[in-house]
Amino acid sequence: MREVTAVRRGLTDPFLPVPALALLAVASAAADAAVLCWASVGALAGYALSGSV
User: Fold this and answer.
1) Per the UniProt record, which residue ranges are transmembrane (predicted)?
2) What's the pTM?
3) Given 3, 7, 23, 43, which is the most exposed site by the fewest CB atoms within 10 A?
4) 44 closest CA partner among 26, 11, 18, 24
5) 30 lies in which domain range?
6) The pLDDT of residue 19
7) CB proximity list for 44: less than 8 A, separation 6 or greater
8) Angstrom distance (rounded) from CA 23 to CA 4
């Protein structure tokens, strides 16, 4: 049971998705990929508004 709890905590912890999406937003802005940049910013906003953070 502890293994399941540890896996669940690791998957729902905002430590991984938030920096990954932020890095994607910065990288796509640097590459002039406007659609991908706004999509990643929108994903960050949706993740924050969902209560996951």
Assistant:
1) 20-49
2) 0.59
3) 3
4) 18
5) 2-49
6) 84
7) 18, 21, 22, 25
8) 29
| Angle subtended at Cα 36 by Cα 32 and Cα 37, rounded to the nearest 5 degrees | 65
Q: Which amino acid is at 29?
A: A
Pair of tokens at residue 48: 């924050």
Q: Where are the beta strands (DSSP E) in 1-53?
A: none
Per-residue pLDDT of the chain (53 residues), as tens digits, is 667 777 777 667 667 778 888 888 888 888 888 888 898 888 888 888 887 55
CA distance 13 to 33: 28
Give 29's contacts (C-beta < 8 A, 6+ positions apart): 37
